[in-house]
Structures are given as C-alpha cells and as structure tokens.
Amino acid sequence: MTTRSPPPFLVSALSNYPSTASDSDVDSSRTRPFVTLTFAQSIDAKIAGENSTQLILSGKESMLMTHWMRTMHDAILIGIGTALNDDPQLNTRYLPPRSPAQPRYHLPRPVILDTDLRLPTTCKLLKNYQNGTGRRPWLICFGHGLQFDIVEWERRYDALEKAGAKIITLQVYTPQSKLPLEKILQALHTAGIRSVMIEGGARVIGSFFKQTPPVVDNIVVTVAPIFVGEKGISYGLPLQQASGFKHMHSELVGNDTVVTLTATN
Predict the structure, then answer these.
(1) φ, ψ for residue 112 (rounded to 5)?
(2) Of 86, 43, 58, which is closest to residue 228 (Cα–Cα)?
(3) Whole-model pTM above 0.85?
(4) pLDDT tens-digit profile of 115-166?
(5) What is the CATH class of 30-45+58-93+103-227?
(6) Does 24 have pLDDT greater than 50?
(7) Residue 28, Cα to own-chain centre: how many angstroms?
(8) Three-state SS at 67
(9) Hey, how many other C-beta atoms are within 10 angstroms of the C-beta on 243?
(10) ω before 244 within 30° of 0 (cis)?
(11) For the chain, which residues make up each domain, given as ranges?
C-alpha cells in the first residue's frame, strides 16, 4: 500500500461521498451525513479488552490506512467511553509529512457523544485545539437522563466551553439504552457535516448497526490476526442486522485484513 495517497480500494469504497473541500456536489435532498462505520476487531470479533480497556489491534499499515480514511470525512464521531478510556487525538499524525508548498491534510472535526459532559478539560483533543494543532471538538449532549444536578452540569458546561469545546444540546428524550442517532445525524448535517466516520466504542458501534431505519452507508472493518478471548468486548451485532450490507472488497494490509461493505438499501 502506498504511503503517499489513500489506497485505491478505500477511494473506491467512498467514491459516492462529497468532497471535504467543497459542498458543490452535495445532494440537497439529504438530511443526514454519509456514515462510515469503521473499527478494528480480533478474529473472535472483539474490539476492546476486559472492562472496555483499549486494545491495539491495528498494525502500522492498517493504522496508516485509517488515517487516510480520516482525511476523506468531515468528522469523526466517538462515544464518551472511548474518549475517557483512550484519550484519543483523532487526527492524521501518521500520514507522511508534506512540504510547506503542499496543501495540508484535511483534518476531520472531532465529535464526542457526551450526555453528562464528562470529557476532561485536560484531554488531548482540547489541548491540541488550544495549541493550534487540532480542530475544535464538538460535544453532543441530550436534555434528559442527567446523573448530576443542574448546578454541576452547568459547571461542567462552562468549564468545557472555556477550554474550547463547542457543545450541542439536543432536547430529545430517549431511553438510556438507546442513542437518538437520527437526531444526532440531523444536527451534524445542519452544522455542515456531510460525511462522518464512526470510530467507537462498542455501544456506539452496536447502536449504529441496530438503528432502524438504517443510517450506515459503508463499513470498513480491520480484522487483526489475533484472538482476544471471552472477556473481550464485542459490538453484539445480531445476525439480522448483518444482512443489510454486501461485500465490496477485501485487502491484505500488512498482517491485517481490511474488509469494505456497502449498504444494500
């Protein structure tokens, strides 16, 4: 796989997405962004360790591919669990350096689903934004189910805004076990996001798989040649949800196998 441009199979998989550089080719009839669901898993379909601890499953070659994929989306979305466990940067730092005369790589917008505003003000996403090396993170929270009183919630809100986060509050009610994905995607589309890459964790991935009607356009799965075991965390996909996608391509990337699928409806 070349390190100087996105791999051809990835370009082909996302060929129907609008350019991140222009809105001129956006379908005005759409009310949500294009959605790519992507994750790395073991052979036994585990994406995290016991108690949701982070697992480094991707090899350096497939990690490079993932960073190319980030440049092809307007935003990256993760859940607060992943943000707390991994303290990710969600940038393109593994891509080869470019000369000053070359255009910069497109940096996707970090988006975190954070109902109770638990993101630490000292996290890497906010530090990178403050240092001018990352984009401003957006937090999406909901006007329901708060575990804290209003005074504590407002304190967290003010502290995160002061640290640089943009907070989008959706006034929706939904059971704690279900994420209001349609409302989330509509809010992102209204804010100018035309394509979003879903990177985890297990609850978020499972929610997108199970959403009815479906909202996922493409899936990119990296399968690492290891077993994690029964204590690992899976995304719990019922077999009936898997029937809504068809295989597009499989590629050996380093020691990993990358599989791309597209929605059939």
Answers:
(1) -120, 130
(2) 43
(3) yes
(4) 889 999 999 999 999 999 999 999 999 864 456 678 888 899 999 999 999 9
(5) alpha beta
(6) no
(7) 24
(8) helix
(9) 9
(10) no
(11) 30-45+58-93+103-227
